[in-house]
Write a structure and sequence with these properties.
Two copies of one chain form a homodimer.
Chain A (H helix, E strand, L loop, with lengths): L1 H5 L1 E5 L3 E6 L6 H14 L4 E5 H7 L8 H19 L4 E5 L5 H11 L2 E7 L2 H7 L4 H6 L21 E4 L5 H14 L3 E5 L3
Parallel strand pairs in A: 2-4, 2-5, 3-4, 5-6
Antiparallel strand pairs in A: 1-7
Helix pairs in contact in A: 2-8, 4-5
């Protein structure tokens, strides 16, 4: 199934924001980067806004208070809105722990696909890709999502990627299928 | 000439950032809005980032220190970069008083057209569209460009709009002609 999907030729029918949310180390960026690469290979207009890009270019000076986090998510939403309404697939990978901030972006943008990248806090702490959970446990970081700040799960996400049970490849296929079902991607199967 | 230009059918050949810089009340926003309207009428993908849009959506919390102004201009430049490389005409209207910040955006974006909207400080103070010069003279605003903060003129702008001598309509035609000469717009004259 994976192979046949990868032989598909995709077209983007209209601009869209594809928003990956989940705990730190849940696996958001891996799936988001794979999606970006695949869409780009298909000559689809795509931009990936991930944590580093955002902190450097949009949100320098913002911290991790609820107010600053909300400002950060709104700002990313504004940029996605500009991109999506001009026919671009804007991909975001951001913890974005607060439900209301994500929902507010959905209302603003309209063409908004929410991908919940799910893994238990225990599993994420075990992975601890950037060593941040350890720092939070040691008290070196305050207000860290999953340690001493809440993560509010999406109530009705468009896709759930369960990264404790699925490979990144399987998650990517789920996302692609959903984008197709929702009418953002159209595919033609090509002979291999 | 104006009329014949307005009968032209324009196409955008590639994404571009069209950056209007000049003193407060120099007339940037008027020309920028007219340009936006005209391009949109021609079904060209266009976004206008003017002062209000920027302050609300990108730069809340930034002040008027040199550091904050530079951060603001860089941030706008980043968004324009994303838009322009996806085929959009990104129009900016911002005082953007520091030469190095503007030049840094030109280097980042590449497809960058700098429009210097020129009027004397005296004339701008006389117009004082938002009443800000008066506030600055009364000491209610500190670091106001043209009063107690410098404006660094572009050394080699792509267009100079002299709003003390030209009508907004004449300035718009100069901008359109330059965009055409630079290869961003192509036009077909249509029968009237």
């Amino acid at each position: 199934m994976t192979d046949s999907k990868h032989a598909a030729k995709y077209k983007l029918t209209r601009g869209v924001t594809i928003w990956f949310t989940g705990l730190p180390s849940s696996g958001k960026s891996t799936i988001a980067r794979n999606l970006e690469r695949l869409l780009r290979q298909q000559e689809i207009k795509v931009e990936l806004l991930d944590g580093d890009v955002i902190r450097t270019n949009l949100s320098r000076g913002l911290g991790f208070s609820k107010e600053d986090r909300d400002a950060n998510i709104k700002r990313i939403g504004f940029v996605c809105h500009l991109l999506a309404r001009n026919g671009v697939a804007a991909i975001v990978s951001a913890v974005s722990p607060y439900r209301e901030a994500r929902d507010s972006n959905r209302r603003l943008i309209g063409s908004f696909v929410e991908i919940y990248v799910r893994a238990s806090v225990e599993k994420c702490q075990e992975r601890d890709v950037k060593g941040l959970y350890q720092k939070a446990k040691d008290g070196l970081i305050k207000g860290f999502t999953g340690v001493d700040d809440p993560y509010e799960e999406p109530l009705d996400p468009d896709v759930v990627c369960d990264t404790e049970r699925e490979s990144p490849e399987e998650s990517l296929v789920k996302v692609l299928n959903r984008l197709e079902t929702l009418g953002y991607l159209s595919s033609e199967e090509t002979a291999k």
